[in-house]
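Here is an idea for our session: we take a single protein and study its fold together. To get us started, please write out a protein record for me. Once you have written the record down, we can walk along the chain together.
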Amino acid sequence: MTMGRSRTYYQYLLSYVALMLTAVIALVAFSQAFFIVQLRENLMDAHRSRLRQTVQQLDSELQQIYTIDYQISSVNENFLSYYLSEPSPMRDLRIVNEFKNLLAPSTFISEMALVEQNDDYVYTSKAVYAKRLFFDSIFSFDEWADPISDLSAFSGRIVRPAERVNGSQRYITFINLPSVFSRLQQAVQLYFVEEGRFLALLSPEDAPTQQGAIFDAQGNLLVSTLPLTAPVFEDWFRYDGVNYLVLSEQSTVMDWTYTFLLPEREYLAPIRRAQIVLIVFLLFVLGLGSLLIHYAMQANYKPIQALTQALGVAPLGDELESLRDAVNALTQRSGEQPVQPTSIPDRQAVKDSLLFLLLKGKFTSFEDFNSEARALGMTFDKPWYQVLMLRYFGKDEEVPRAALTSALEATLGSGYVYHFRELFEPSMIVCLVGMEEGASEDLAVRCQRLLTVCAQEHNVSFTIGMSECYQDIRQMTAACFEATQAVREYFIQGRHQLIAYRDLRRTLDSQANPLSELRDLSGQTPQQQMQTVRRFMDALIEQKVPSLMAKSYCNFAVQMLLSAAATPVSLDDLFTISYLRTADDYLAFMLHMLRPEPELPAPAADAHQPAVELLERIYTYMAENYDDCNFSIQEAANKLELSSSYLSQYFKQQTGETLTSYIASLRIRKACSLLETTTMPLQMVSESVGYYNQNSFIRRFKQITGVTPGEYRKIHQ
């Protein structure tokens, strides 16, 4: 089939080519910014390493001068005895032989000489010369007017150039004046090193294009393979049309600076070769990628063209416009059809999320819950409900969900509706059970059988806490608390038990202290209750009640407040009880229960009254629903009887903040509080603040706080 070339085809083709070019450009930029730079640094490091070896060799040779100097002036007893003996030809011969022995191991030092200020002779490793003869006929020093007299004017150690008389050989002369520790206070030692030996190291045979120079501390040129006149301080140097890389190293023996000049073209040639290879490779990738894109577009676009032709619209025109029209038509026809449960991704996770919202009190009735959950096959249509909290005891942290599902099916039967999920801790499972009126006792019997089935058939051990029986969906949070308090009694009653909340001791002994402080709690206002709770805690601390008993007293106080609370307590607050560790923690929690709701942000003072009321309604709705995983701006607009666009624009205009960012800030502030005060699993924190997807929660949390939730918890706990 011959394929026509439409405008959309070429648009997509050009977009793919643009993406490929972007990737190629990014690769080139990365290569230049990282790979080539790294290669250059590696090359320079290799050159520096090789040059440091040269410097070490030079310093090693120079160190021999000081070693011989030290031998002569302080250590060598043979030389000292010869030197102090009476002048004679034999004495002179012995001194010459001693010098010759000292120089024998060194191939670097050409000659050495000893000049005594009060002696008319100069002693060398070859012969003994008269001073005037030595300085006039053997070696000459162009910088000195009279070397004999100038030697006495120097102090310390100096370096001077010298030449052999009637010869072209140049030397670097090291003049070592006696130190305070020398036994030859009137003697000056001279060491002659051929300039060619330095030049051979600065420009070795295996790198003949390398050049170099040596400068002293004052910047005076001592030796150079090029006619330099001053030190080079730049990174590169140009001489006679050649660019040189400049590398400098300090001597560890002398106060010298070794300067090495490397021809840039030669020593950076590997970088140029790498760049050429990279360019060739990129051109190959560009050509091959263009061909692949072209043929892939042909293969992938044929079904689109065939579909548009089958629809009978624009057979050779703009296929995407035709498909868009077709999709819109199909959407209008099927818009009224309900979404099938099979189209919802991650069914179990969505069911768990809905159950969590129910327990948090986000639904006003079971009918509202069923309207959302029915597509998942998850409904509660019974008149009475109880909460079961199962504490799992097993080697593995993960609850055996399949085994629990099988055991529940085998024990509860068709007369009950139930759904369960992990809650609070990895080892805690909450199960909401719906039943007919008067079935609570039968449910207790079936729960006993559930424990037996789990243990015998699945080798799984549970303890079950059972709440009271309720009809109102708003009491499910309280039921959840009751079941949690009951299941924690396994500490006393043991594992593999069914513990009903109604069987727990929940009355206070009015005669006991400090519990007597709480006897009038139920009839007080929230402000009076705050004072009563503070007196109770003060009495608890003053009497130094043992910690286990004090915690029981505190739990009694929480139960009293819960039964006397004017407003329902949230599931998040009830969960926090599990992680209270001190009396101060309990006091802060109970005061939090009694504290009135925080005031909403005040609208602008000059706002019109209708605008103020609307902004208050928006704030109220957001505060009540921000932690709903199914929260959406569209749903909020519907509840507030506004359009979503008007709601977003109005909120932005009144507050300067978008609704999305405001909701995110509410959620992250709540998450920070949970991370600081509880050890709630991260998935539970995520769902508690309205994030169905844990990864989305982590990304948003880090975007706002700069750290991940795990890092935040480590910092603040």
